[in-house]
TrEMBL record, chain A:
<comment type="subunit">
    <text>Homodimer.</text>
</comment>
<dbReference type="GO" id="GO:0030170">
    <property type="term" value="F:pyridoxal phosphate binding"/>
</dbReference>
<comment type="pathway">
    <text>Amino-acid degradation; L-alanine degradation via transaminase pathway; pyruvate from L-alanine: step 1/1.</text>
</comment>
<dbReference type="InterPro" id="IPR015422">
    <property type="entry name" value="PyrdxlP-dep_Trfase_small"/>
</dbReference>
<dbReference type="GO" id="GO:0042853">
    <property type="term" value="P:L-alanine catabolic process"/>
</dbReference>
<keyword id="KW-0808">Transferase</keyword>
<keyword id="KW-0032">Aminotransferase</keyword>
<comment type="similarity">
    <text>Belongs to the class-I pyridoxal-phosphate-dependent aminotransferase family. Alanine aminotransferase subfamily.</text>
</comment>
<keyword id="KW-0663">Pyridoxal phosphate</keyword>
From TrEMBL, chain B:
<dbReference type="InterPro" id="IPR015421">
    <property type="entry name" value="PyrdxlP-dep_Trfase_major"/>
</dbReference>
<dbReference type="InterPro" id="IPR004839">
    <property type="entry name" value="Aminotransferase_I/II_large"/>
</dbReference>
<protein>
    <recommendedName>
        <fullName>alanine transaminase</fullName>
        <ecNumber>2.6.1.2</ecNumber>
    </recommendedName>
</protein>
<dbReference type="InterPro" id="IPR015424">
    <property type="entry name" value="PyrdxlP-dep_Trfase"/>
</dbReference>
<keyword id="KW-0663">Pyridoxal phosphate</keyword>
<dbReference type="InterPro" id="IPR045088">
    <property type="entry name" value="ALAT1/2-like"/>
</dbReference>
<dbReference type="GO" id="GO:0004021">
    <property type="term" value="F:L-alanine:2-oxoglutarate aminotransferase activity"/>
</dbReference>
<keyword id="KW-0032">Aminotransferase</keyword>
<comment type="similarity">
    <text>Belongs to the class-I pyridoxal-phosphate-dependent aminotransferase family. Alanine aminotransferase subfamily.</text>
</comment>
Length: 516, 452
């Protein structure tokens, strides 16, 4: 991904400026022979793979957005009064309310003296006691086991069994993680090895969530792109998987297949048949399956349903369920919880070789343990209030409200964006984003080229400067050559979202006009 | 980790086996809460209020708790601790951390752009990731002390780097000697390519606090040999002896240019140790000094892929760097805490352990652990060999089985060939310490007699 030439010049200017400010002598040797200039850690000496790491969701456009916020707060005049960060899947930042029950229990866990306070319902108190009893010294401040608190893992296993209609789940296969990202990166670390033509290749959808491309770059793995079909609502074609795999076999050793369902940024919810096809494909081609299912409760479209890879795998019978290696990921950051700041998550590992499991445990122990409040939160997510319990009514009401509002906003977004000539938006079947396709006029493509910017980055930067709306250009996620997109969250409150969508519409019309 | 796989202590009691003790005292971790230390009320009240703002209605919580929580919530996107924060941490908290550092260092300026708050040890992992070139031949090397806590060594191994050990001199209070650094560096020739020097101050497992002179020697050595300095200072609030803690940042700044403007330094601190002991919240920060700006950009990218540090942990850091002040309603309770009993613990440990024949303990000047030498009799060493264990592992296993004390063997941390040590956490309540010392004395005398 190219950065704007302007940014490059700015960076060089800044670095030479700071050198001058520091007053460092250029190539001077002092009396006792010490070099006073050259650094140990430079662009040339640093780990080369880290240089390739980019994460568009928090990349240059977001940095500019933060700058603009600062300028606004300092009183600078702008064509907008606030910066709207529609770049990141952060529900609470956009006003979504937390689930009361969860916050009550966590408050009790933080400060157990509150257990004697009548402001808290009994079921919250008993949950809190149960969690505290499983913590060292009855405090969330103790380290837990690296794999996560045992009782939480057991609760997660039971949740998975209920969710999957009784398909058994072994708590030993559950690993609590620091967000889902921690689990995903750890699994990739285990999978990546080999040199040259035997270097591990990992299949990932295009478009994808850029954590995957960043992790693969850092690990020096080969990224194998398989394209989702935009014309068919971002569906996954097995033929395309086969094509990508066959080509990749020429220059690397493909070992893993990553799939995000519901999709990010695309929002598609895979059909059951599709999931079965993917499993059969993975079995046939001997690929380790990584199923990123963090948006499993965010399903909006009629006729769409979430099917976990685990469940489908087991329902396909022992030929598959006893052989296909699968890691499934979940998190407390999305769905109806939106508790990103807790960094809670888990992964379930199926059919992993025992020796490899031992290595996994060792790898995880390096980071000691996941944040305990996140583990506690995960426990509540998998073990929410039940019918008859004091907090049940309120819990159901809050959860339903949150999910139904998201469904409305998904629909609204699709509708409004599709009224704009030059914007084509697939139905937002699930997750938290729209990923519409843009028609960018030739003159704009030219100007972007001159600036050394990706066309959709050029477009999004302009939108940011003119409207204060921060989106992520499609080039940050990957897209078919010659197509342009942006990713926008559906998270702002409905009335704000309407204004936002309108501003996007007007900007696009102006932009198209300007470059016609 | 070999030792941990040998003995999950709870299982001993679960199995219903009769033991001469009621419970296992687990001091194998640097985890004060696990050992019975109570969390600090102020920080927990602030956390509770941030989690469930309704608590701030009425007078349930003291006014300074409410003010702190309200301020923090305003600094969170959407007023919720459930939001992501900026990559390097909530900007206002980062600002306050930088001010804390400046105060701590007697006015040495601290730039907030140089600070990254992250999930516990992730900061170290990210910095190491940038330094270690996994494709290089020869491998990247990092000088590490002996003894050293195992997490660092494991991190290095996981990244494909080589640990180049340098021995601390136990007889001189675990002093770090430059000649030994040179020897270590020489030993790396042809084996690996050292790029960094990792120091722990105050130490872990050995409880030393480096003096300024020693630190200046280390800094000069790093400058001369072109090594990136990694300063693990997580125990900086745990200092009991005569030697004052001075940060590497401060020592470096006081040496003036050119060193102060060129030596590249990463300093680590955390909310897991010190008075807070909030290990489970996973919050720490790294301050980067004199790094190449182009490299800083990449470091930022790397941190961004972790999203952000857990927000509750960031709040704990905020309290750690800005505790209640004299005059605040919460101040009296806040102060009346572990520091006094820690000094007492240290005194008792040194007194008891040094009075037992077969034990020798260097002064515990700082840190969370005692790391005495155990002079194991030849018969014990023989027996250990017979059962296929390292001698100090054998000692610790017996200690667990017979006295219900879970320590860790020196073998886990590295030690001079032919010497044996045990490590145990001293950040525990006074009464638990007394019980620990009672059991340890009894066991040790019996053990020494058995193998005499």
């Amino acid at each position: 991904m190219n950065h704007g030439t302007a940014l490059l010049w700015k960076r060089r200017a800044l670095s030479s400026l700071s050198t001058t400010r520091r007053g460092l002598p250029k190539e001077k040797m002092s009396e006792n022979g010490m070099m006073s200039r050259a650094k140990v850690l430079t662009i040339d000496t640093m780990n080369p793979t880290v240089k390739k790491v980019e994460y568009a969701v928090r990349g240059p456009i977001v940095q500019r957005a933060v700058e603009l916020e600062r300028e606004l707060s300092e009183g600078m005049k702008k064509p907008f009064t606030e910066v709207i960060k529609a770049n990141i899947g952060d529900a609470h930042a956009m006003g979504q309310q937390p689930i009361t029950f969860f916050r009550q229990v966590l408050a009790l866990c933080s400060y157990p003296e509150l257990l004697s306070d009548s402001a808290f319902p009994e079921d919250a108190k008993s949950r809190a006691c149960r969690i505290l009893n499983s913590c060292g010294g009855n405090s969330m401040g103790s380290y837990s086991a690296s794999q996560g608190i045992e009782s939480v893992r057991q609760d997660v296993a039971r949740y998975i069994e209920r969710r999957d209609g009784g398909v058994p789940c072994d708590p030993d296969n559950i690993y609590l993680t620091t967000g889902a990202s921690d689990g995903i990166v750890t699994m990739l670390k285990l999978l990546v090895c080999g040199e040259g033509a035997m270097r591990t290749g990992v299949m990932i959808s295009i478009p994808q969530y850029p954590l995957y491309s960043a992790a693969l770059a850092e690990l020096g793995a080969v990224q194998i792109n398989y394209y989702l079909n935009e014309g068919k609502c971002w569906s996954l074609d097995i033929d395309e998987l086969q094509r990508a795999l066959n080509e990749a076999r020429l220059y690397c050793n493909p070992r893993a297949l990553c799939i995000i369902n519901p999709g990010n940024p695309t929002g598609q919810v895979q059909s059951r048949e599709c999931i079965e096809d993917v499993i059969r494909f993975a079995a046939k081609e001997r690929l380790f399956l990584m199923a990123d299912e963090v948006y499993q409760d965010n399903v909006y479209a009629e006729g769409c349903q979430f099917h976990s890879f685990k469940k489908v795998l087991f329902e396909m019978g022992p030929e598959y369920s006893e052989t296909v290696e699968l890691a499934s990921f979940h998190s407390s950051s999305k769905c109806y919880m939106g508790e990103c700041g807790f960094r809670g998550g888990y992964m379930e590992i199926i059919n992993m070789d025992d020796d490899v499991k031992a290595q996994l445990t060792k790898l995880l122990s390096v980071r000691l343990c996941p944040p305990v409040p996140g583990q506690a939160l995960m426990d509540l997510v998998v073990n929410p209030p039940q019918p008859g319990e004091p907090s049940y009514e309120r819990f159901i009401k809050e959860r339903t409200a949150t999910l139904s509002v998201l469904a409305e906003k998904a629909k609204l977004t699709e509708q409004v964006l599709n009224t704009v000539e030059g914007i084509r938006c697939n139905p937002v079947q699930g997750a938290m984003y729209s990923f519409p396709r843009l028609t960018i006029p030739e003159k704009a493509l030219q100007e972007a080229k001159e600036l050394g910017q990706q066309p959709d980055m050029f477009y999004c930067m302009k939108m940011l400067e003119e409207t204060g709306i921060c989106l992520v250009p499609g080039s940050g996620f990957g897209q078919k050559e010659g197509t342009y997109h942006f990713r926008m969250t559906i998270l702002p409150p409905t009335d704000k979202l309407k204004i936002l969508l309108n501003n996007v519409k007007e900007f696009h019309q102006r932009f198209t006009q300007q470059y016609s | 980790m070999a030792w941990e796989s040998l003995n999950p202590p709870r299982d001993y009691l679960k199995a219903g086996v009769r033991k001469p003790y009621r419970d296992v005292i687990d001091v194998s971790w640097g985890d004060p809460h696990r050992a019975g230390v109570k969390p600090l009320s102020f920080v927990r009240q602030v956390l509770a209020a941030c989690l469930y703002p309704k608590l701030m209605e009425g007078d349930r919580l003291m006014v300074d708790v409410r003010q702190r929580a309200q301020r923090l919530l305003k600094e969170c996107a959407g007023g919720s601790i459930g939001s992501y924060s900026n990559t390097a941490g909530i900007p206002e908290i980062v600002q306050r951390v930088s001010e804390f550092i400046t105060r701590r260092d007697g006015g040495v300026p601290c730039r907030r752009e140089n600070i990254f708050i992250s999930s516990g040890s992730q900061w170290a992992l990210n910095i190491l990731k940038v330094l270690v070139n996994s494709e290089a031949s020869p491998r990247t090397g990092v000088l590490t002390p002996v003894p050293c806590h195992s997490t660092t060594i494991l991190s290095l191994m996981a990244l494909g780097a080589a640990a180049v050990p340098y021995h601390l001199t136990e007889e001189r209070g675990w002093a770090l000697e430059v000649e030994e650094l040179q020897r270590a560096l020489d030993s790396a020739k042809g084996v690996c390519s050292p790029v960094a020097l990792y120091v722990i101050n105050p130490g872990n497992p050995a409880g030393y606090v480096q003096n300024r002179k020693s630190m200046q020697e280390v800094i000069r050595f790093a400058a001369e040999k072109r090594l990136f300095l990694l300063a693990d200072e997580v125990y900086q609030d745990c200092v009991y002896g005569k030697t004052e803690f001075v940060s590497y940042k401060r020592a470096l700044a006081e040496m003036g240019p050119p060193l102060s403007e060129t030596v590249e330094l990463a300093s680590f601190h955390t909310a897991s140790k010190g008075l807070m002991g909030e290990c489970g919240l996973r919050a720490g920060y790294v301050e980067l000094v004199n790094l190449d700006p182009a490299v800083m950009k990449h470091i930022n990218s790397l941190f961004s892929t972790n999203s952000c540090a857990p927000v509750l942990g960031q709040i704990a850091l905020d309290v750690m760097t800005n505790p209640p002040q004299p005059g605040d309603p919460s101040y009296p309770l806040y102060m009346k805490h572990i520091r006094t009993s820690l000094a007492e613990n240290v005194r008792r440990v040194e007194e008891v352990v040094n009075s037992l024949p077969g034990f020798s303990c260097q002064p515990v000047e700082g840190g969370a652990f005692a790391f005495p030498t155990v002079f194991l009799p030849p018969k014990a060493i023989e027996r250990a060999k017979e059962v296929g264990m390292k001698p100090d592992t054998f000692y610790c296993l017996r200690l667990l089985e017979e006295a219900g004390l879970l320590f860790s063997p020196g073998t886990e941390y590295g030690q001079k060939e032919g010497t044996y040590h045990i490590r145990f956490c001293i950040m525990i309540p006074l009464d638990v310490m007394e019980e620990l010392l009672r059991r340890l004395s009894g066991f040790h005398k019996r053990f020494m007699k058995e193998f005499s």
